[in-house]
Structure formats: C-alpha cells, structure tokens
Amino acid sequence: MARGSRLARVAALGLLGVPALAGCTPNNEFWRWGWPDGVTDEAYEMRTLWIWSVIAALIVGFAVWGLIGWSVVRHRKRGDELPKQTAYNLPLEIVYTIIPFLIIAGLFFFTVVVQNRVQERSAEPDVTIAVNAFKWNWQFVYPETTGDDGEPVNTVGTSDEVPILVVPTDQDIRFELASADVIHSFWVPEFLFKLDIIPGNENGRDNVFEVTVREEGAFVGRCAELCGTYHAYMNFEVRAVSAADYDAYLAARQSGLGNFDALESIGQPGAATSTTPFDLIDDAQRADG
C-alpha cells in the first residue's frame, strides 16, 4: 500500500473519531470549544456565534495548512536546476484579496446580528429591576412594588451579607443600571454578558439590557470594572426562581419581611450560596501585618 494512501486512511479515521468523542461529552461540551453553556436566551445566541466562528476559523486553518503542505511537496527540490520564477500572479492576488474580505464581512455581519439580538429591548418587559452600583456594593430595587415603608422593595448588601438579586425564570427581565460614583460593571458569568455602568446616564439606553433566564439556581455576580480599593469585594448573587415563587417573594417583601426571611418563606436559602462576603477587618489586619 502506498504511503500516501495509508496517511489518508489514518486521517479519515481521525476525523471519524471526532464525532464519537463529541458524543461522549455532556451537553455537547466538545462543540462549545470551551465556551460556557449559559442560562439565558441571549447566552444561547452568543454561544452559537462562538461555535460557528471557531468552525469557520478551523476550516480556514485546515485550508491554509493543506496549501502549505501541498506547496512543500509540489515544489520540493528535485535537482540543481533553478525552478521557473514568477514575478506576480494577478488572478491569484485578486483571489487571496477577495476571500479574506468575504470572510471578514461574513463574521462582521453575523456579529452585528447577534449583538443587535442580545441588546434588543422589548416594548413592555415582564419585570423591571433597577440596579444601583456604588463604592463598593449593590442595591437592587423592584420599582413596581411598595414596601411597608411606602418605598419600593429593595435589597442592599452589607459587609456581612452578600446582596441577592431575585429574578423569575421564563420572563423578560429588564435591568436599568445606574452608578452613584465611578464606572462599575454588572457581570453575571452565567449570563455570558456584562455591561459597564456609566455614571450620569441613569436609565438611559446605554445602561439598560434585558435577558430571559431559563434555569433556576444561584449564580454569582461581580463587578467587572476596576472601580477602586475594594473592587474585588463587590460580589452579589442572582437567585433565579419560578414565576410563582418570585411573586410570593415580592409579596413577602411587601408585607415587611426582610430579604433573608422572604427567601426562606419560598423555600430558598436566605443567604447567598454561590459566594460569601469578604472579611474586611481580617483582610485589613493581615495587610497591616
């Protein structure tokens, strides 16, 4: 058997093995190429863009590697005679100018489509939540509610308690972000999305986004913008619950219960489970020591 034929068969077996390996990984993890799964509709859109971008890059890569290999074999030295020299090849130059342009244009087009989809705002979202960032904590306000003090229900973190943002699943949620001082950044890794909060643009278009959460659970949130000395301490938790539990939670808060007791009343842990508060005093003492 010719050497080239054996190599072709080995390569074919390798390619056949890829789908088999992919089938052994949970939740199609292989085809996500390291991209997180995400828990929102918007995360699905971004994950799909990432997967097809990697596939396109691999196709281009294999084509380039194949051409390099073909050139090495086809133009290998066969003797001392100087091969034919070509100053330029106009048709070839046109081709390798047009093809990269088409690739870039295609990637740009699909990126813009996904970006517009992720940043799309509905006329009437199911839920609106105001997020106020400040050095170095978070406040979550439910503007469509009224607490026992006559003000909208809100949650603020402390040095001993991580603030918990409660949201319903399977509903369109609008976040209206505001900063009281410097630029912060609202980031929930499972959303596969973050948004910088620019001061002076409260509730403006640039500080608003919407998501639809599809999975219940507790997801850590962070500030992703270096905002000062205690930037790393700005953790929070997103607690995604069913729509019925969300309504029951807000009813409990409006009746006067605190965040901890209201979460306990719907069968949820009252304290954050995905992250813990930092001990500021202990950290300061260790820094001084």
From TrEMBL:
Membrane topology: Multi-pass membrane protein
Gene Ontology CC: one annotated term: membrane
Organism lineage string: Bacteria, Bacillati, Actinomycetota, Actinomycetes, Geodermatophilales
SUPFAM superfamilies linked: Cupredoxins, Cytochrome c oxidase subunit II-like, transmembrane region
EC number per UniProt: 7.1.1.9
GO terms under biological process: ATP synthesis coupled electron transport
TM spans (from-to): 49-73, 94-114
Keyword Cytoplasm found: no
First-level EC class: translocase
Principal location class: membrane
Entry protein name: cytochrome-c oxidase
Protein family according to the UniProt entry: Belongs to the cytochrome c oxidase subunit 2 family.
Keyword Nucleotide-binding included in the entry's annotation: no
Location relative to the cell: Membrane
Native organism: Geodermatophilus pulveris
Keywords, comma-separated and alphabetical: Copper, Electron transport, Membrane, Metal-binding, Respiratory chain, Signal, Translocase, Transmembrane, Transmembrane helix, Transport
Residue ranges of domain Cytochrome oxidase subunit II copper A binding in the record: 124-252
